[in-house]
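A further point concerns the way the authors explain their paired sequence and structure data. Each protein is reduced to its one-letter sequence and a matching series of backbone shape codes. An entry of this sort, consisting of the sequence and the corresponding backbone structure tokens, reads as follows:
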Amino acid sequence: MRNKQVKISKKKSLGYAIGLLVAALVGTSIYLTNQNKSLTAEIAELRKNTVVTEVVDGDSLQLVNGQKIRLSNIYTPELENCGGQEAKKRLKELVEGKSIRFEFIDFDVFQRSLGLVYIDNTLVNEIMLREGLARFEATPTHEKEKLKAAYDFALNNRIGIFSPKCLALEPDLPGCLIKGNINRNTKQKKTYHFPGCSAYDQVMVEKDLGESWFCSEREADKAGYIKSENCFGRTFKAVKE
């Protein structure tokens, strides 16, 4: 009799344990389901916040949450310079109204988030460089070599800002032979050079950087350029037609 009671007690205990286990599993399932729903909602919210609402220029944009982003490893022309509007237009085609994947690298001097921008698996920074719409900056990123190769491709094939349209090897007007040059490091020192100045032939007019040809020293002075030290003691003589 006692053995029967023990067996019944064991069965009850086992049933109770199984009941607890089932309850625990159901509770865990409900918890995980709720967690997954919460995670899915968070991911959806994050994706919504990565939608581009505005393209400011060729290398900077703004997201729906107001965050300002700048593409790393590239810099495009100012909007008023050669290629500036084209760069902005192309970036708009690539990202405006779309959800991007952004890999943060650092903050720039204006406290904008600086990094790599992807549409699916397409690296937007690379497209801008390969199509000759930007110059390369050696910011340390895991995509640096790929981006440098894209820049070299555009440079070697004279695409975009490296085409004769922006890399002006010939003067805009006959006889306007003065070359305006902007120091790339400071972007402040602006000098001009004319035939007879040493290294004149090595100076290039890169219009995407804001450089220009001038017809007279007075015109160059008025635009904020000063005579290069390589022109010491010389005066530009206009070519007479």
Q: What stands out?
A: Confidence is low (pLDDT under 50) at residues 41-47.
